UniProtKB/TrEMBL annotation:
InterPro entries: PIG-T. Keywords: Signal. PANTHER family: GPI TRANSAMIDASE COMPONENT PIG-T (PTHR12959:SF11), GPI TRANSAMIDASE COMPONENT PIG-T-RELATED (PTHR12959). GO terms for cellular component: GPI-anchor transamidase complex. Residues 1-19 form the signal peptide. It holds the Pfam family Gpi16. GO terms for biological process: attachment of GPI anchor to protein. This is GPI transamidase component PIG-T.
Length: 676
């Protein structure tokens, strides 16, 4: 009985402990946070921007511990192993159209990315260890995201911008791979970091064919950590994952009327949302209408925010937020919010219909930037950066009140691979076609010239241009270098990429302040929009043709030698294997069989020539002799030829052998490095 009682007491104790620990777990879940959000924005060129925003938060390790329920372990370990303070990785396909999709709003300035892969990271290690950490980080990310990010390991591909990329950025490394192809194998590991993967919640919309059919898609991962910063002791790790897709809704032809296409979640992605991700704290969908669109619609005569004659939603919005303190008073945008609850009865499928035609234009960055190559030939050329004012910059507020002349500051950050040897002293700045003196146009310039096979050339330049400019341009001359044979990429004749330059405007900041009608509903995406951030635009990637060796030469040599070998051995074997006695017997049999017709024919021909006809028996013996000699001659000729061919092959091999080692030859043939 006493034993039974003690067992009972033990059981009660265990249950008590268990219930206490589950209480702790609930608290811990409250510490970690995951939210999912999706923003739609109709674009003026009849496309729709979809921007997914997922945020995972974990409190600092010293108050919370190492065990996580929601936060991805891979990212936590990455942050701790390499002591990362901030990191951003993006995979992009397509080019952001700054003209029609905007260049002045928070979404475009943080999600318009250069094509391919871009990675930058700030480390919390001593300055001499940053490079080692960067190298190890690129390898880890490469494995994590199934991409060749490890190519950024080489010191020729990354750089350490001083001030133009981010102000006061020590321990920052920046690298980009313009030619990296982005596809589903990069998206899948990215989705794996979400607690619900793409099984439920907003991420279940991510239908691969719809996403990759889009005009632009950029998948981004941004990480900030306060783990190593004693000042930010309550800031743990925040992981922000965004996917930005520009899609064209399938629109029926509308005769004459310039009606924007109607769209819905199911028409854009071919899928609907069944309910929120059970682990998400909140799950919201937003539709943003830009300020100029709202402004143009108001002209149609409708004033209310709730009901508008111009368009209608298939679901009525849960909340409406209006932008306050907009850069342009009359242009304040509106955000319609929809909460996804557990819509188990009915799938959530937000639709948007236009009833009246409306046209508008996006808010653009102060300057329209493009970069191109000048010059011809394989020796030298020039890079030109052209800046043109947009209509937006006409209405810019005066930037510098102290100076009598208004100045527009433009920062340029450009990394150029070492084989493009840029002569920085040839930099010329033209404003409206007039050359400017160096001191007039350039406020600050720092340059680190490239070093062959060691480091790329980095240029950071701060231009000050008059506000009323129409166009400005910057040119830099360069020489093209020579690469070693194994430094050529597989398709060298395509040309070599110069990564995008980054243009930013330090005097302007983008930020959208929304008046939230209910402060208890906090949206990380809306708070992100409210953060002040720099306006960035990326230029095109340049493709420079370099002198390339004739990679088909070894192939040609091999095919020619093989053909000659085949011919030689074929005829030699034929000559050697020919059985002369057998042939003779066959010939005789033929003669016997051939009967009267051929003998008649030869008689006739002899008569015609006026010669006496001799019987065929003698001719067969002469034929036999001649066939024997012919075979001999054949063998002799082939032998001579063979010797010549051998000489030729030896020569070719020696030429090749001198130039290449065996491994390099293989590399050159197959274009890849088998060691990696
Ligand atoms: C990077 O990786 C190498 C090889 O695994 C290791 O020896 C080195 O300590 C690592 N460095 C850093 C800074 O993590
Ligand atoms: C969008 O829907 C509205 C209302 O149903 C309709 O009048 C209009 O023609 C549709 N527009 C297009 C482009 O299909
Ligand atoms: C704000 O939202 C909360 C939760 O949805 C709700 O309980 C509260 O009544 C709302 N407050 C206002 C002012 O709408």
């Amino acid at each position: 009985m006493a034993r039974l009682l003690s067992i009972f007491v033990l059981l009660v104790f265990v249950l008590h402990v268990a219930s206490e620990s589950t209480g702790e777990v609930v608290e811990q879940i409250n510490g970690e946070e995951f939210t999912e959000e999706l923003l739609f924005r109709p674009l003026p060129d009849r496309k729709v921007l979809s921007h997914f925003h997922f945020e995972s938060k974990v409190p600092p390790t010293n108050s919370y511990g190492h065990h996580h329920r929601l936060f991805p372990k891979a990212i936590y370990q990455l942050v701790h192993k390499y002591r990362i303070r901030e990191m951003e990785l993006s995979f992009t396909q397509g080019r952001w159209n700054y003209e029609s999709w905007g260049g002045f709003d928070p979404v475009s300035s943080s999600n318009a990315k250069p094509p391919g892969v871009e990675l930058w990271a700030v480390f919390d290690v001593s300055a001499d260890q940053v490079d080692a950490s960067w190298k190890n980080l690129t390898h880890t990310l490469s494995g994590l995201f199934c991409a060749s990010i490890n190519f950024l390991e080489s010191s020729t591909t990354y750089s350490a911008p001083d001030w133009s990329f981010r102000p006061l950025s020590s321990n920052l490394r920046y690298g980009s791979l313009p030619r990296e192809a982005v596809c589903t194998e990069n998206l899948t590991p990215w989705l794996k970091l979400l607690p619900c993967r793409d099984k439920s919640g907003l991420s279940s919309l991510m239908d691969r064919p719809s996403i990759y059919r889009g005009f632009y898609h950029s998948q981004r991962l941004h990480l900030t950590s306060g783990e190593f910063d004693p000042m930010a002791s309550d800031h743990g790790i925040v992981l922000e994952q965004t996917l930005t897709v520009v899609l064209q809704p399938d629109a029926l032809e509308t005769r004459g009327r310039k009606l924007q296409p109607n769209w819905s979640m199911s028409s854009l992605f071919g899928k609907t949302v069944d309910g929120k991700c059970a682990l998400a704290k909140s799950s919201n969908v937003y539709v943003q209408l830009e300020g100029s669109l709202v402004h143009n619609m108001k002209d149609e005569g409708d004033e209310g925010l709730e009901s508008n004659l111009n368009f209608e939603f298939s679901i009525s919005p849960d909340r409406i937020m209006k932008e306050v303190n907009s850069f342009h008073r009359e242009h304040s945008s509106i955000l319609y919010g929809f909460s996804i609850k557990d819509h188990h009865s009915k799938p959530f499928d937000l639709g948007f219909k236009w009833n009246l035609p409306v046209t508008w234009s996006c808010v653009k960055a102060p300057l329209r930037v493009s970069r191109f190559l000048m010059g011809s030939g394989n020796e030298r050329g020039a890079i030109a950066l052209s800046l043109q004012s947009t209509e937006w910059s006409q209405s810019l507020p005066k930037v510098d009140h102290n100076e009598e002349k208004c100045r527009l500051k433009v920062d340029v950050f450009q990394v150029v691979p070492w084989y493009i040897k840029v002569y920085y002293h040839t930099a010329k700045v033209y404003v409206d076609g007039v050359p400017q003196s160096f001191g007039d146009a350039i406020e600050k310039l720092s340059v680190s010239p490239s070093e062959d096979k060691v480091s790329p050339g980095v240029m950071e330049m701060s231009l000050k241009l008059p506000c009323d400019l129409k166009s400005a341009s910057l040119t830099l001359e360069f020489d093209k270098g020579f690469l070693h044979i194994d430094e050529y990429p597989p398709d060298a004749n395509q040309g070599f990429d110069i990564p995008s330059a980054i243009i930013s405007y330090p005097d302007f900041q983008t930020c959208m302040q929304y008046k939230q009608d209910n402060a208890s509903i906090k949206s990380p995406m809306v708070s992100k929009m409210q953060e002040k951030r720099k306006i960035l635009s990326y230029t095109e990637v340049l493709l420079v043709p370099l002198t390339t060796p004739d990679f088909s030469m070894p192939y040609n040599v091999i095919t020619i030698t093989c053909t000659v070998f085949a011919l030689y051995f074929g005829s030699l074997m034929n000559a050697l294997r020919r059985r002369v006695g057998e042939e003779e017997r066959l010939l005789k049999e033929k003669d016997k069989k051939s009967g009267k017709l051929p003998s008649l024919f030869s008689k006739l021909s002899a008569k015609l020539r006026g010669k006496p006809w001799d019987p065929p028996s003698s001719s067969s013996s002469s034929k036999f002799i001649s066939s024997k000699t012919a075979a001999l001659v054949n063998i002799l000729i082939l032998n001579c030829l063979g010797v010549n061919v051998m000489n030729l092959i030896e020569k070719a091999a020696s030429i090749l052998g001198k130039k290449l080692e065996r491994t390099k030859f293989v590399k050159m043939l197959f274009g890849t490095d088998f060691e990696n």
